Amino acid sequence: MTTQEAEEQYACLTCGDVNPGSEFRWKIKKRDPHCKPCRRAKDRERYKNSNGAGRDKVFDHSLRRLYGINLAQYNAMAESQSHLCALCGEKPNSDRRMHVDHDHETGQIRALLCHQCNLLLGNAKDSPARLRQAIAYLAKHGRPQ
Length: 145
What we know:
Layout lengths: L2 H4 L2 E3 L6 E3 L3 E4 L2 E6 H14 L3 H15 L3 H10 L18 E4 L6 E5 L1 H9 L4 H14 L4
Antiparallel strand pairs: 1-2, 3-4, 5-6
């Protein structure tokens, strides 16, 4: 009998499916009673339904870890930009927070951008030359004004 065949089977409390133990996370000396997909769904739902404090705490932690700023500094930046994208000047078209735009080489924070503008700069690899090429391409192949 192989190790895999000998692995214990567990029933998930959420979905009732019986799976091998490897499909369940460990929680302090015992297995989580919910399989990994159900646990992810429960965690996602709890995060989505939190009153904002949970989301703010997670976002604050990410800001500190990734950019060295806190939520209050992020909110001050958003306020100074009137909650508009620093590149296109429009209000983001979703409920998601704006992205912290930064120089990937130096880590220097530039401003807050909407999702589309952040993707634009990221896909252009922050290269002004590449963006000028894109403008020339659009001018050559774009729709007549």
